[in-house]
Amino acid sequence: MLPFSARCLTPITRKMRFIDIGINLTDPMFRGEYRGKQAHQDDFDLVLERAKKAGAEKLIITGTNLEDSLEAIQVTAKTEHSGYLYSTVGCHPTRCGEFEKYAGGPQAYLEALRSLIKKSSSVVAIGECGLDYDRLHFCDKETQQKYFQVQFDLAKETQLPMFLHNRNTDGDFYSMIKQHREKFTHGVVHSFTGTLDEMEKLVELGLYIGINGCSLKTQENLDVVKAIPQDRLMIETDGPWCEIRPTHASFAHLANVPKDEMKLYAPDSKKKEKFEPGCTVKSRCEPCSIGSVLYVVASVRNQDPQVLSEIVWENTCKVFFSQ
């Protein structure tokens, strides 16, 4: 199976290769800052170095609002990150109130997002956008739906795929996707934690399903992952969150990871107060852990990890790097 574009032309080798479709590299944690306080030195470059050693050959930085999207594009614009870092541009459902609070109003906010997309060739998707009814204290349903809809229009205009978010929406997310499905080429529902029925309905609409540590917490989650059609599967870390924890149903599957590879995916860690440059920060999920996600998914599905990693690579290239 050949890659879909020149940007994915890497020969198949024994070493597995990954694309992290959702990594929040603009989060201050990757600069050593936690809740507004500097806990340790900026180790952004070390995070990227570990990711590369672990086989993460491309990282897509998640844009969660106008400010984060701008920062993501500024990071990807650096010469040393060319061909390695990419970004999405959009507004997360819990941040949609920003459309109305923006100095020039909602239309100006939308225009600012549009302008960012036009300025950078590193933008590969519209999002993160969608609906989130678990955190309505940040933004009410009506506002979320209103500004989710305008981002469908942005996807249609730019012909970019959509990076989608869905939490506890009682069918509203599915209904809006179905209503606007003709407006976008491809879409991936990232950090998927829904039911088997939800997954199957979304796949029927031609969507992809993104899996990370938060998608692998319970046995029910694992049963859903097992059932995802392999041509609709993608993986991510969603760092600095969504690590695989010992309390998760997925944790036992990590026993299948060869020890030498596990050292790459889960290097020695220290608490942030005892930071050491050669170690990861305890409980801060990094893109280097993408291989752990792949191994768990392969184990749950009883598939060869090397074969599955190539299938997931091809899926991801088809959606984000085919232009």
Please give a handful of descriptors for the protein shown.
3'-5'-DNA exonuclease activity; DNase_TatD-rel_CS; TatD-like; about 325 residues; two-stranded antiparallel sheet; about 35% helix; endonuclease activity; nuclease; TIM Barrel
What does it look like?
With 323 residues, the chain is α/β, with parallel strands linked by helices. The chain has a domain at 186-323: Metal-dependent hydrolases (TIM Barrel). Helix content is 37%, strand content 16%. It contains eleven helices and twelve strands. The protein has helices at residues 44-53, 66-76, 97-101, 106-119, 141-158, 172-180, 196-204, 219-227, 259-265, 290-301, 305-320; strands at residues 18-23, 33-34, 37-38, 56-61, 85-89, 123-132, 162-167, 187-189, 208-211, 233-235, 269-270, 280-281. The chain has an eight-stranded parallel sheet. Strand 2 and strand 3 (37-38) form a beta hairpin. Helix 2 (66-76) runs parallel beside helix 4. The longest helix has 18 residues, at 141-158. The radius of gyration is 19 Å and the shape is globular. It starts with 17 loop residues before the first strand and ends with a helix. Residues 1-7 and 9-13 have low confidence and may be disordered. Pfam families: TatD_DNase. Belongs to the metallo-dependent hydrolases superfamily. TatD-type hydrolase family.
